[in-house]
Amino acid sequence: MDKYRLSLIVIGVLAAGILLGAFFIGVQPQLDRIGRAETQTAAAAQQNTVQETRNAALAADNERIDEYRGTLETNRTQIPADRSQQPMIDQIHAAAAAAGVSVTTLSFEAPVTYTAPTGVDLAPPASGTLVQVPVTLSASGDRAALEQFAANVQQSARIFTVTGSQYAGPEEPTLTLTGATWVLKPAQ
Predict the structure, then answer these.
(1) Which of 38-42, 96-100, 146-150, 182-186 has the weakest average pLDDT?
(2) Which of 103, 104, 123, 101 is closest to 114 using CA atoms?
(3) Which of 6, 79, 132, 176 could join 166 in a cystine, given CB atoms 3.0 to 4.6 angstroms apart?
(4) Quick one: 101 exposed, middle or buried, by C-beta within 10 A (0-12, 13-18, 19+)?
(5) Distance between CA 26 and CA 34 in Å, rounded?
(6) 23 DSSP assignment
(7) Where are the alpha helices (DSSP H) in 23-142?
(8) Positive or negative CA dihedral for 52, 55, 57, 63?
(9) pLDDT at 134
C-alpha cells in the first residue's frame, strides 16, 4: 500500500467521522426538537378541539339563556332564598279562599337544615344550604272544600310538602295539615 492510498483511507475515515459527528451534534438535536414540537402541536390541537366543543355548548346554552332565566325565577318562587313567610301565608289564604274554607291556625316552627333520610344518597345543593321550615295549619269548612283546600295548597307556587293530615268531623269539620316549606339560603 502506498502512502497516497493510506492518506485517502485516513481522509475518508476522517470525513465519515466528521459527517457522523455533524449528524449527532447538529442534525439529531434538531430532529428531536421537531419531534417534540409535533407532539406539542398535536396536544394543543386536541385541547383546541375540546375547547371548541365547550365553546359550541356554551353558545347553544347562551341562545337558551332566557329560558334558563325563566326556569331560575320559577325555582326561586318555589324555593326562595329568604325566610320571609308572607308570600307563603298569602298563598295559603288564597288557597283557602278558592276552596271556600277558613284558615283557623297557621304556625311556622324554627327552620332546620335539611338532611337526606338515611340510605338516600342525595348531594346537597352547590348553590347554598337547603333549609326546611316546618308548618302546621288548620282550616274549617265542609269535607269537599277541605279536600280542595289541601290540593290548592300543594299546587301553590311555593312548594309546600305535606307530611301529615288529620281530618276531624263530621260536625264542625276541620283539616289539620303538617308539612314543610323550603328556603335555599345562598352560599356565603
Answers:
(1) 182-186
(2) 123
(3) 176
(4) buried
(5) 13
(6) I
(7) 28-63, 65-78, 86-99
(8) negative
(9) 92
Give me the half-sphere count of Cα atoms (radius 13 Å) on the Cβ side of residue 176: 7
Cα–Cα distance measured from residue 183 to residue 112, given in angstroms and rounded to the nearest whole number: 10
Return the bridge partners of 166, or none: 176
The structure's pTM equals 0.60
d(CA 84, CA 180): 14
- pLDDT at residue 188 in the model: 67
- Mapped onto helix, strand or coil, the DSSP state of residue 4 is helix
* Amino acid at site 55: N
The count of residues in the chain is: 188
70: cell is 325563566
Model pLDDT, residue 48: 94
Reported as a single tens digit per residue, the pLDDT across 110-169 is: 888 877 777 777 777 777 788 888 999 999 988 888 989 999 998 888 888 888 888 887
User: What cell numbers appear for 175 in the block?
Assistant: 283539616
> Which residue type, as a one-letter code, is found at position 84?
S
User: How far apart (Å, rounded) are the C-alpha atoms in residues 90 and 181?
Assistant: 14
